[in-house]
Amino acid sequence: MRRALLILLASIGVNIGAAIAFAAHAAPQANASDAASLQDAAALLREKRASEALAKLAPLAATLKNNAEFETLYGVALTDSGRPREGVSALRRAVAAQPDNFAAHAQLGRSLAAAGDFPAARVQIAALRDRSDLPPEMHEVMVRNLETIDEALKRKKAAEKQQKLAQAGAPAGPRLSESDRATIRAAAELVRAKKAAKALAKLDPLADRLAGNPDFDYVYGVAALESGHPAQASVALRRALAARPDFHLARAELGRAFAAMGDLAGAKREFQMVRDVAGLPALARDAMGREVLAIDQALTQSGVSPSQAGPAKPETPQPRTRISGYIENSIGYDSNVNAGPSSETLLIPALSFLGPASIAPQAMPKKSGFYELAGGLTITHAVDNDTALFANMVGNWHPLFDHGEFRTALAGGEAGIAHRFGDLGTVSIAAIGQTFLMGDSAFRNIYGAAAQWRQRYADTWDVSLSASWLGLEYPTLAGQNTDRYSAIGTIARKWEKVPLAPAISFTGTAGREIARTDGMDFLSFTFFGGRVGLETTWAPWLVAFAQVSYEDHRYDADYPLFFTHRHDGLFDALAGVEIKLSERVSLRPSVHYSETRSNVDLFDQKRWITAMALRTTF
């Protein structure tokens, strides 16, 4: 019954903006940095981004405890992030520190209701309503809130009565002893206290004996779901429904479990069944309807939605197509547009008796400002809930302010199919094509194929593995044509609740590039490398990013005239920020440095690129 009451809470209105504005009148004992964090959190709460606000506030909990401004914001963020009991504690501290803080009192009532304590919420809101100094507009809100809570309490009693009647005629499964009931109640309290893993550990020893009892299976299923084991949860919740088919709370939780496993169609089905129950309170029915609409939106926006529905009749999926893309304008400066060597002289071992040779001035690094127009288009068509067709196209035009003979352009794309194999992950295969132009002619053409597997573990770690073959052809230098075989692995994670919400990724690469022409083995090489990326969120509109990589190339044969196998080390670093000007427009200033160090001096080079890019997405 508790989750149904939480659903009803959606209609209890408290102006979060007013709560924040009122709390700001308190005298915060915070330094400038803390005050800025509080302002950022307030802005996030106004934008309904509670989890991001909580990530900013949590590190201040120790230093700003009992500060009315902080505790009000912290309580709102906790409540709106699904942790109302902790929100109640924070808001009680805010009220104790500032008894006349109307907004904190109102938010306390709201948090109590969210925690399922409707009687206490009613007392809190009624006391606030009856204050003679309460602003008229706030008085009206409190009156409406009391009406909502009274209706919720009335519905709760009626629902409990119906549930008792249903339980009387339904098979109860294994009988519970008083000790069993006490254990289940204790586990339920642990779940409510956000200690689901402990609750699951408490219930596990009883699973073999009590599986089939709907009360046990319900709490066991919720504990498993909150502990990150949705598949285990779905098994227990199915048992609960088998024993008690009208156990609507269990069905709603089963919908959540399906959604957590990625089975959006199955989740939608369960939520619809709850929504369509006769006699369901109107507010709960509306909440289930919102869940269905949210799932429909998610299905529309994602090319692949994994499906693991049980024996219930599956829905007939409808074709869904999504088109997205971007346009980017950049301006910047490049210190080496022609990839010229670092040194002005070169000692060729086979001609060492002639001494060092001077490299022609036209081959030395050329500097120039540049402009770039780039764009991309992605089309995804979901065939069903597990399979999607996709096509990605990219292109850019890169003219130079000086040395126009080195201007470049690129056009390419990929097309393929992706399929989700249940809990095993998603596999995609694609055909690839690209052409790269320098000056007025094609410099290099690429064609090939790639396959990728990707999966998310524990709802936190994103993992992918890919393999590809690419044919590289040079229209004016056919002897340099090669085939490139590579394997890439990536693991990434984002810590949403840590300050700055850091996201980090690690990528490893290995492979071979093999010359097609006989006698050109000095162009064949083995490569391996790695890349580390970091992204941090400093404000809702400001993200900083950095990336460093290294790749090692070891060639198969002596480079002509140098009497040694060529060995290159490629270092690359990129850093910048993304400034969000609006939901779809962002500005990206960046600095890019690359360096190649080779035992064949001809290939030593360094390059700096600074750029300012304006990107619009659609």
Topology of this structure?
Blueprint: H1 2-8, H2 16-23, H3 32-46, H4 50-57, H5 68-80, H6 84-97, H7 102-114, H8 118-129, H9 136-169, H10 178-192, H11 196-203, H12 207-210, H13 214-226, H14 230-243, H15 248-260, H16 264-275, H17 282-301, E1 320-334, E2 345-346, E3 357-358, E4 368-382, E5 387-398, E6 408-420, E7 426-438, E8 441-457, E9 461-473, E10 482-494, E11 503-515, E12 525-539, E13 542-558, E14 565-580, E15 585-598, E16 605-617
Antiparallel strand pairs: 1-4, 1-16, 2-3, 4-5, 5-6, 6-7, 7-8, 8-9, 9-10, 10-11, 11-12, 12-13, 13-14, 14-15, 15-16
Helix pairs in contact: 1-17, 2-5, 2-7, 3-4, 3-5, 4-5, 5-6, 5-7, 6-7, 7-8, 8-9, 10-11, 10-13, 11-13, 13-14, 13-15, 14-15, 15-16, 16-17
Strand content: 25-35%
CATH architectural label of the largest domain = Beta Barrel
Unreliably modeled segments: 1-28, 300-319
The value of Rg in angstroms is 31 Å
CATH superfamily of the largest domain: monomeric porin ompg
Roughly how much helix do the residues carry, as a percent range? Answer: 25-40%
The SS-based structural class is alpha+beta
Number of helices: 17
Largest sheet: 14 strands, antiparallel, barrel
What spatial order of strands do you see in the largest sheet?
1-4-5-6-7-8-9-10-11-12-13-14-15-16
Mean pLDDT: 80
Under CATH at level 1, the class of the largest domain stands as Mainly Beta
Give the termini distance in whole angstroms.
42 Å
Instruction: Tell how many strands the DSSP assignment holds.
Output: 16
Shape: elongated
Could you give a quick summary of the protein structure above?
The chain is of the alpha+beta class. The chain is 36% helix and 33% strand.
